[in-house]
Structures are given as structure tokens and as C-alpha cells.
Design brief:
mainly beta
Length: 122
């Protein structure tokens, strides 16, 4: 059974930083790309970014503020968020690909965590 558990969310003031973590079990992440998504109330789910097996990837949100990393030995995925803005307020989800998925769109992902809430106040 594949299980993804996010942590590290919370409430911060604008300009602050948070580091989200995603613990993965049942799936050796070293063999897969991984991704982060977010969803704000009343809005559609948005891609935050993905990271390939080799550590390369894309941040669809401001790459100057958000970065994704991974620790394959620990089966952990991370999302470092700096200079947070109120518009970054959302539930943040990590995701692992479905078989054959390449992490380029939401449809590529078959496993999702329960999410961790990030709230940024002005």
C-alpha cells in the first residue's frame, strides 16, 4: 500500500518561510518522479512543481521562492517555500505518479497525500 503523509504546514506571516515534508511508504521514490500541488478554497488544484529521479525538475510557482528536493534514502520529498505571500495560502499535497506517469500533469499522478494546510497572513 502506497502512503504519502505531508507535514510542516502552518500559519505564517507574509515574508516568512516554511518547509513542507512528505513521507512516502510503499513506494521507493528513487525510482520515480514526484510532485507537489496546492488547492486554495474555491479554486482549482494547481501544480506547484515536480522533481525527477535525477533531482531536476520544474517549479510552476515562482521558482525564486519555491524549491523542491528529495532524499531518496529516506523516501522523503520536500517543498521549501520562502517569501510567502497571502496568495500562497492553500492546502498543499504531495503526489506520486501512477504507473507510467511522468509527473507532467495532474493526470500523471496516482497517489496523493492528505494534504497540509499553509496559511499566510498579511
Amino acid at each position: 500500500q502506497v502512503l504519502l503523509v505531508e507535514s510542516g504546514g502552518g500559519s505564517v506571516q507574509a515574508g516568512g518561510s516554511l518547509r513542507l515534508s512528505c513521507a512516502v511508504s510503499g513506494l521507493p521514490i528513487s525510482s520515480f518522479c514526484m510532485g507537489w500541488f496546492r488547492q486554495a478554497p474555491g479554486k482549482e488544484r494547481e501544480r506547484v512543481g515536480f522533481i525527477d529521479r535525477d533531482g531536476s525538475g520544474i517549479s510552476y510557482v515562482d521558482s525564486r521562492r519555491f524549491s523542491i528536493s528529495r532524499d531518496n534514502a529516506k523516501d522523503m520529498l520536500y517543498l521549501e517555500m520562502n517569501s510567502l505571500k497571502p496568495e500562497d495560502t492553500a492546502m498543499y499535497y504531495c503526489a506520486a505518479p501512477a504507473p507510467g506517469g511522468r509527473c507532467r500533469s495532474a493526470g500523471d499522478f496516482g497517489y496523493w497525500g492528505q494534504g497540509t494546510q499553509v496559511t499566510v497572513s498579511s
